[in-house]
Amino acid sequence: MTLNKQLIYGDIGGTKTILQLAEIRDGEIHQQFTHRYDSAAFVTFSDMLRDFLNRTETTNHPVAACFAIAGPIVAQQTKVTNLPWQISSTGISAEFSIPVVKLINDFEAAALAIESLSPNDLITLQTGQSHAQAMRVVLGAGTGMGVAWLTWLEGRYFALPTEAGHMDFAPVNELQIHLLKALHDKFGHVSVERLLSGSGLTNIFNFLQMNAAIASDLAPVILEEDSGATITALAQTRKHPIAIKSLDLFAEIYGVYAGNLALAGLCRGGVYIAGGIAPRIINILSSGGFMRAFRDKGRFSALMNEIPVHVITNTEISLLGAKQEAHNLLNSQD
After folding, report:
1. pLDDT bucket at 235, cuts 50 / 70 / 90
2. Cα 299 from chain centroid?
3. pLDDT tens per residue, range 311-323
4. Which of 24, 71, 235, 287 gives 20 to 30 Å between its CA and that of 252?
């Protein structure tokens, strides 16, 4: 009897980790077992992976594994953000007798998952005119700002990870210029991530609150460093005027930046907005300010009208990408 080949893949984060075991039958991936972990409960990732394999009770070694990890991967090694874990693909391969192991950035994984998404996983902000096999870009604000390109090579899309969230913030109007100055006085270098992240939304709120203090009778709101969820709730449930203005400005800056990336890569294959924040503020992103800012590129505004723009609502996109890449690894062995 021939045993079906098995894959392991996962989405590893500083707070939680999801691992899955799948089997390849008739060329298709069939999920066998899933477990969600509190990442901090384990001293090392190897301890967690060993626990997972014991739970699966599998009798044969997986032939390939891929893990999506928040943070940069250098020479197939990484340190997980907010954890003492040091992970290397060669270390996992040797310890668990898995022939092929690959580590990928979480936004590289998100990019790889685009092909696997269904229409129900997307909310379209602009239909545009999608070009087959053209460049795509995936970006998303969450704890930070992640960006990955998708380029067509050898019959499929390949993901190119970046650290484009650390590009300089480029203000486009007087209010944003004042915002840049305030953040420059505080931080020195002001990257896009200082605006487009949970802590970035907090920076925007604090700036607007400080500048409204003289003319406002609102009681000041004291926030933690990363209070994006609190600001969103203030806007959506309590109609707090500064929180509403903060989300509008956040969406405007987000649209400008997404448009810049679309131009940089000539992304006629589409712009995909991922990350934890976008699905929670879809009413703001859909209200028009985001797309107006996206399209406002002077002589190239007509081109911007042609580029498809989607918000990804699937919360397990990085896991889907790790699954796709694990399958690619297996195919490359055959």
Report:
1. very high
2. 30
3. 999 989 999 999 9
4. 71
